[in-house]
Structure formats: C-alpha cells, structure tokens
Design brief:
Oligomer: heterodimer
Number of helices of chain B: 9
Number of strands of chain A: 14
Radius of gyration of chain B: 20 Å
Organism (chain B): Thiobaca trueperi
Number of strands of chain B: 0
Pfam family, one (chain B): BPD_transp_1
Order of helices and strands of chain A: EEEHEEHEHHHEHEHEEHHHEHEEHE
Family (chain B): Belongs to the binding-protein-dependent transport system permease family. CysTW subfamily.
CATH architecture of chain B: Orthogonal Bundle
Membrane topology (chain B): Multi-pass membrane protein
CATH class of chain B: Mainly Alpha
Keywords (chain B): Cell membrane, Membrane, Transmembrane, Transmembrane helix, Transport
Shape of chain B: elongated
CATH topology of the largest domain in chain A: Rossmann fold
Number of domains of chain B: 1
Helix content of chain A: 25-40%
Chain lengths: ~350, ~220
Amino acid sequence: MIELQNISIEFRTKDQVIRAVDQASLHIGTGEVFGIVGASGAGKSSLLRTINLLERPSAGRVRLDGRDITDLKGAALRRERQKTGLIFQHFNLMHTRTVFDNVAFALRVAGKQAAEIAAHVPEILDLVGLSDKVQVYPSQLSGGQKQRVGIARAIANHPAVLLCDEPTSALDLETSGAILELLKEINRRLGITIVLISHEMSVIKTICDRVAVMDQGRIVEQGDVYDIFARPEHPFTRQLVDRTFNLDLPERLTANLQGTLLKILFLGERAEHPLLSEAALRFGISVNILHGKIEYINNRAIGLLVALLGELQECSTHAAHITEPLTGRIAAAVDFIRQGSARVEVLHA
Amino acid sequence: MPSEWASLTADLVHAFGETFLMVGISGFFAIVGGLPLGFLLFIAERRLFWDNKAAYATGSVTVNIIRSIPFVILLVLLLPFTQFVLGTTIGPAAATVPLSVAAIAFYARLVEAALCEVDPGIIEAAQAFGASPLRIVATVLFPEALAGFLRALTVTLISLIGYSAMAGIVGGGGVGDLAIRFGYYRYQTDVLIVTVIALVILVQLVQTLGDRLAKHADKKGV
C-alpha cells in the first residue's frame, strides 16, 4: 500500500545541511494501523508528510499502491492528495467557517456538486459524533470536538490512507482515548489505512498494529507493537518502553538495597506460572515484590515485575537443609527465574 | 459674526468633500493595488506555491522605498508622473496620484502582515487536501485574513486623512489644508480648533466602522 524507500530529507541552512530524515524505509500494508514513534525533532513529522508529498524527499521514492508518486507535480499531485487524509495536532480548522463548511471544503476541492456535499457532510459528521454541531464555528468547540471535525474533513473524500500527526497530543487523557477509539473504528469500519505519529508509546500501544521507532532521523527499529514492547532492541526503544511501563522505584527503596534487584519480564501464558514462590522455596531466599504491572497489547499480556531477592529473615525449619552461602543461592535463583521467564535484568546486585 | 461662521461652514463642507474625494480614490487604489501586492509579497516569501525570491525582493524593496520617503517629498517627486497621468499637477485629483502610490505601498505591507497572521497549519491543511493555489488564496487565505485586511484598511484610511493635509501643497484642498491655511497662516485659532474637532470626529467614525466590520468578519472570538 504505502512504500517509503530510502527516504532522506535535508534542510539547508546558511552553513550546514541538516538531515531531518536519514534513509528511512517503511512498508505499510492495506488496512493497517501503523505507528511512528520518536522524540520531537526525530524527523517523524517530516517522514509522515512525504506520504502526501507535503514534504518532498531529497532522496528516495514514495510509492502508493505500487505507483511511484515521488515526482508528481501540480494538478496530478493535487489529485493524488485528495486520496489521502491528514489530521493535525492542532486541528488546523478554518476559524471563519462553520463545522459544515470546514468538512465541505475537502469535498469542494475534490470537485463534488453542492447537492452531494449537502447530503454527504451530515453523514460524516454523524459518523464522528458531531451531528448536533453542524452550523457551529470551531471556536465554540472543545479540543476533542475540533479533532472530530478534523477527522470528518480528512475522511470526507473516502481516502485510502489517513495520516495522523500527533492527533491526541493537544488533548487531555480521556478525550485522547475517545479520539483513538474513533480512529480505530474508522480503520475497522471503512478499511482506511492509518499512519499515526506520536511521541507517546501509550498511544501506539492503544491503537497500532505495527510501529517504527525513529531516533535522530533514522528508523532504529520496527515491527509488531507487541514484539517491540516485549523485546525492545535499540537503547532508545528500551528507554521509551521503560518510560511507558514506568517501573521506577522511589528513592527510599533504592537508596539502601539489601540483596539482588531483578526486573523480570513475563510474556503470554508464562505469566501464570508461580515462578517466584517456587524460587523462594527451592533456594531458601526471600522474594520481595516492589513493583509490577501487566499490560495487554492487542489482547496479549506483558507482565513486568521488580523483585528483590535476599536472605530470609528467620531461618525457617524446612529451609534448614540449605547450607550453601547466600550469594550462591541467589545466583542459582536468578538462573532459575531466567529459565522460567522471558527476560531477567539485574538492576542491582 | 454669523456670516463668518456661515462661510466657515461652507468652507468646511467643501473641504470635507475634497478630503473624501482624495481619501476615497486613494483608498480604492490601496485595495485594488495593495491587496494583490500584499498577497504577492506573502506568497513569494513564504514559498507556498510560487517560489520566487526575485519577485519578493523587487516588491519588498519598492514598497520600502516608497514608504521611507516622507509624503511631502513623495508628492513633489511624483509631480512629473502626475502630470503624465492626469495632464495637470494641481487640484484634489492631482493629489490622489501620490496619495494612491503611498496608500498602495502602505496597505500592501499591512496585507502581508495580516496574511502572516493566518495559521500556517490551516494553509497546510488546505494543501494536504489537494486545494489549488487559486482556491487557497480565494477560499482560505482571503476569508481567514479578512478581519486583518479590514483593520489594515482602517489604519490606511486614517493615515490617508493625515497625508491629505499635505495635499494643499499642490492645491489639493481638504480639511487638513483648511486647518493649515486659516488656522496657521491666518492665525484664526477658532477655525483651527473647529477643523481639528471635525477631523477627530471623522477619524473616530472611520475607526469605529472599521472595528465593527473587522469584528463581524472575525469569527474566532464568537
């Protein structure tokens, strides 16, 4: 469906050339919800805009449905753009037009007749849940409602692709959720391919099937959202995932640690196995769970635990046979846990 | 001295007529000439759909030159041009030529500034939906900047009322000229005060009307 091949975007300033996007390649399938995540300034916005050539790549090719559109200009380019919708972080609605006229604008551009527009606009506004705001001006709407108008305008021409530039970053948490829900519904009901950029992994996690991670103009990692969350490879991705899980311990706990601190990752049904209690019994150690979380991504579970392994406070009778020193037992327990889980990271030994 | 007041009233009415003529005609040219020039400056500089540094530089420098010349001097400098256009250099009509030139340059800059106030995101959105340059100018930029254009026009008209006072140099007449001739040269302070009050009222009216129209065009704050 969408194929970006070795896209580079350079900006020339007086004395240097800034590479906003560096040899990025993506392949996005029909009907997919594809996310691009990265810090601000990572080049994701520029990369997104190459798909409708609002940003012209300095090098590389853009293909839609197998057609190379990279060199399109003028009227041909404008016709191509009518097949792609775009929504923005700050909505970008025309202030001087009503909701109806903002949506109708996209249809007029596509050369639709007045009668058709009059019939079609209320339908789309109904779809995005704004049927009672037809004749209202944008300044009278809330952020979430403005974004709904933006979405209505973007899908008015039945585009094959909907590009979303940080669609929820200017909205509060609850409204964000509702907008993401709406986008998902549009993807399901109308079969529109969605490409969404965000700086928040939580947005990607909620809506995307696949994701590409961008750092300093490069795509450092891409794949299934679940896999990226479960096994982030690149340091930047790890940092993003860690921040999403937010398993930081309060300083009170980390300042004076006695024992070995582990971060344990469980995937899928393995999360159900009583691994930690077994380790505690078998090696005669204490297991103290300090933090934990289970996330569901595309209905699959990822469990993360932060646990402290240490000496049992009072040597109970059934562990009396254990003669090995504590360090050895803990090392054996770590090995045991490692075999029974997806990944173990020693945070402190 | 009722006869004196009667003649002053007649003079005032006549002078207002001349002022309206000069400001009206040059205001008309400000719109007809300044609006397109302002769009040209904006579009050429922003490189929206017409990348032309030369056009921007030429337009910008011309506007700057006109605007940096004090109006009295522009009036004199343009005498040959006025002669060429109208066949005369005397009278209110002759004064409208330099007034129009100044007004076009003045208004063009203000139009450009008003266009810069339009959220670039709105223009980007229109481009993203495949709108043609002409459509963007006519149905996006123009309505979105209309309130700004009206405010700019108000400022321009008021400046023109001020400039038209200097039209007396070429025998242009007008309220300002009346104030200078009677109030200043003939030491008739009462005439000076009356004309000044009349000018203050005129400017107030123009400003109030302009504000109303601009507010009506501006849906942002509804």
